[in-house]
Design brief:
The structure is a single chain. By secondary structure, this protein is α/β, with parallel strands linked by helices. It has a single domain, classed as Aldolase class I (TIM Barrel), CATH 3.20.20. It is 43% helix and 11% strand. It contains eleven helices and six strands. A six-stranded parallel β-sheet has the order 1-2-3-4-5-6, covered by helices on one side. Strand 2, helix 3 and strand 3 form a beta-alpha-beta unit. Helix 1 packs parallel to helix 2 and helix 10 packs parallel to helix 11. The chain starts with a helix and ends with a helix. The model has no long low-confidence stretch (mean pLDDT 95).
Amino acid sequence: MNLTKAELVPYFEKLKKQSYKSVAVLCVPAVYLPLANEMLKDSNILYGVQNCYYEESGAFTGEISVKMIKDFNAKTVIVGHRERRNIFNETDEIVNAKTKKVLENDLTPILCFGETLNERNQGLAKDVVFRQIHGALKDISKENISKIIFAYEPIWAIGTGMIATGEQAEEIIAYAKKIIYDISGKKDIVIIYGGSLKLGNAKELLKMPSIDGGLVGSASLNFKDFNAIIKSADSLIS
């Protein structure tokens, strides 16, 4: 929940002039979807939103349906972000329902999972990841699972001053890929990393063999930093 229209217009202007090897996606607050549609629709920058509701329509004041999101040519929806889970008490069942609705409407879910510091300290990180992934993918077809972008967000490494090393992120993401393979039989699973990913640690994290990209948080608010992070990813593409 950051930036105003006055701040976003020059940001979009700079962004759409860039040419990246990587796939770059900007997930904006839903109120700025019309602006993204207007300014980015003819660029190579994809855009989406940070949340949705799992019903088509109805008396759900303040919520936004996936069909509303599609009206503005968005391509992605973040589902199960750690703040949605922790602040707004979204359960695995809610995350599953949202994921299904996004897929039903031919958009790409960016499906988040990850453990808290307390869970990691208790040695439960893999148990939490196993539960969240299985819960999120309940009754989703194997074919649709391969359409999901997964995002590992170690909650303990976000806004705490603690930083996950490349090895720590690689361990969990490799494990998550095995879980998803066991469920779906799909090897072409995309998992990106999001947990205080910044310019200073982007290359270390993105060069790990199981990490397919980054979910950039606060560092994306500054165009210069966000642009540099994407170019850091570009440098790893042969």
